[in-house]
Amino acid sequence: MANEVEEDEYDWIVVGSGFGGSVSALRLAEKGYSVGVVECGRRYEDSDFAESTWQMRRYYWMPRLGMRGIFRVTAFRDILIVSGSGVGGGSLGYANTLYRARPAFFTHPQWDGLAEDWDSELKPHYDTAERMLGVTTYEGRGPADELLHRYAEETGVADTWTNTRVGVFFGPAGEEVPDPYFGGDGPPRTGCVRCGQCMIGCRFGAKNTLRKNYLWFAEKLGVMIHSERQVVDIRPIGAEDGSEGYELVTERAGAIFRKQRRTLRARNVVLAAGALGTNKLLRDAKHRGSLPRVSDRLGHLVRTNSESILAVSAKDTSRDFSNSVAITSSIYPDPDTHVEVVTYGKGGDSVSRLFTLMTGDGTRLTRPILWLGQVIRHPLKFLRILWPVGWSERTVILLVMQSLDNAMRLIPKRRIFGRGVKLQTEQDPAAPNPTFIPEANKVAEWFAEQMDGIPQSGLTESFANTPTTAHILGGAVIGSDPDTGVIDPEHRVFGYRNLYVCDGSAVPANPGVNPSLTITAMAERAMEHIPAREAREGTNKAREGTNNDSLKGSGSAGAGAQDPIVT
Ligand SMILES: Cc1cc2nc3c(=O)[nH]c(=O)nc-3n(C[C@H](O)[C@H](O)[C@H](O)COP(=O)(O)OP(=O)(O)OC[C@H]3O[C@@H](n4cnc5c(N)ncnc54)[C@H](O)[C@@H]3O)c2cc1C
Ligand code: SF4
């Protein structure tokens, strides 16, 4: 029925079920609150994941075209963003890699001084996050790792080579065992079979997605997940500062007709829709007048992790670099630059469409010319990479990220048709995001030589000088006041009460490594500051479940915390 209105009321609503959202949901439920999670993606069981990325409806997220998968591609003028979608957010299709941020992250001027020492402040929360996500060091050295190690030796940084820290269960391969992580209270798990398909979705139950830890326990505690529902507006009920609660308008995700609009009410809200989702929601709400007090710094300091993603495909179609987990080792060519070798595993061939012949440095005008030059000089190589069959097995993807201080902005562009605002990017005038990383091309050229392979850049990087990132961050970052940030150090949105941001958009600087562990640790810290709900017999679904002490972080509610309102 069109525009059906249904009202549900919670103490807390969490928007998005990725790393920040899942931590928030579990910790709030443990504190005795009733919690609803709204997630626009669909719920996937292990066996539902695509076997190959050609199964487009199960892999790509383009709901208007009937594709409700886990991989979202969003193109802007200055950056191509790949991100996750589904119950479990980015964890469903991420590459399992979980590192603590580089030292420069903790002392970045954006938040330096807002805690005594961010490194020590976050340390206990990193510990909790690592325990919850089951982080361990990958063991093994496949052909891509050997190459990376040799490159490190030749360039004098062999001491930086290391196997990757990953959230994967390495029990007996292919064998199901009772929960090995949470004293038997978690779901049964199956040992990793090293198929490399982690980014397509682990069909074996070996990958420690959020469904296997945070969300598993959150649902056990009664957290209600509303999947395939997209939040499109948030507005205070009564008092303008949100102190009497919020109303969230949701629609069937991706619907053009029969949107089945519904309203949910909550006394407190956590925005955890990922950097893209949270920036969009806050921008729409500010523009529409629903949340006019949100800081004008919204959309500033959007970070890409200073990233570049390249690929090298062996010409020999029998080569196979895919018998491992997705990311297995890394090096630091210099202290600010991190290079990881990545595989998509068998069945990732459609992703080859995001790559083309590698080009060198240039501008938006000269790079397409450089690309054309490459095609004319190397027509056979060009034709070879157009042939996708077996691409993902014979290809080593090189993920290059930096802890340097650069950024862009997500600013509003008025829509001619439709509701709300459209976001567009703009480079930060003081420290623009790089469109070319010389070290990245250098590594790719070296790999190509050794593999008798073809080096490739991201399609948009070659054509439009627009790099690709899988690690979009920032835009609603921590600051000392609304003139410098969108949220305070306890993740509360300036200008409002009981409205929080706990996801990648809160991250104030480039971590220089894969960011999910940092997002998780920051969310753990934010939730620690929320006091527990007063005991109220019989009114809270969340208290019906059991409370598992082994899941708790250390410490207690911080001084100065706002008292969240309860229904
Ligand atoms: C292919 C790939 C591989 C990656 N590999 C790694 C890796 O190995 N290690 C690592 O650290 N990081 C990796 N990342 C990045 C990682 O996935 C993200 O950094 C992380 O998921 C961000 O967490 P988050 O809490 O900010 O939000 P997300 O995990 O992105 O979750 C946000 C959720 O909110 C939902 N949502 C958005 N808007 C709305 C709305 N309006 N209403 C309702 N729901 C909404 C989305 O569908 C999504 O499920 C990878 C990303 C990709 C795409
Ligand atoms: S390598 Fe295969 S089995 Fe192991 S975590 Fe990745 S997808 Fe799962």
Summarize the structure.
This protein has 567 residues and is of the alpha+beta class.
Total helix count?
A: 12
CA radius of gyration is 23 Å
Work out the number of β strands.
27
Query: Which molecules are bound besides the chains?
Result: flavin-adenine dinucleotide, iron/sulfur cluster
Structural class: alpha+beta
Mean pLDDT score: 92
Helix share, percent: 10-25%
Distance between the termini: 29 Å
In terms of per-residue confidence, which ranges show pLDDT below 50 for 5 or more consecutive residues? 1-5, 535-550, 552-563
Beta-strand residue fraction: 15-25%
Largest sheet: 7 strands, mixed
Task: Lay out the secondary structure.
Blueprint lengths: L6 E9 L3 H12 L4 E5 L16 H4 L1 E2 L4 E2 L2 E5 L4 E5 L18 H4 L11 H16 L1 E3 L5 H12 L7 E2 L1 E3 L8 E2 L11 E2 L23 H7 L3 E4 L1 E8 L9 E7 L9 E10 L2 H15 L11 E4 L4 E7 L12 E8 L2 E6 L12 E3 L8 H12 L1 H8 L8 E8 L5 E7 L6 E7 L10 H14 L1 E6 H6 L3 E2 L3 E3 L23 E3 L14 H13 L39
Parallel strand pairs: 1-2, 1-15, 2-12, 6-25, 15-27
Antiparallel strand pairs: 3-4, 5-6, 7-9, 8-18, 10-11, 13-14, 14-15, 16-26, 17-21, 17-24, 18-19, 19-21, 20-24, 22-23
Helix pairs in contact: 1-6, 1-12, 4-12, 8-9
Q: What key attributes describe this structure?
A:
alpha+beta; 27 strands; 23% strand; binds flavin-adenine dinucleotide; globular; binds iron/sulfur cluster; 567 residues
Structure description:
The protein has 567 residues and is α+β, with helices and mostly antiparallel strands. It has twelve helices and 27 strands. The strands form eight sheets. Strands 1, 2, 12, 13, 14, 15 and 27 form a seven-stranded mixed beta sheet that branches. β3 and β4 (67-68) form a beta hairpin. α1 (19-30) runs parallel beside α12, α4 (118-133) crosses α12 and α8 (366-377) packs across α9. The longest helix has 16 residues, at 118-133.
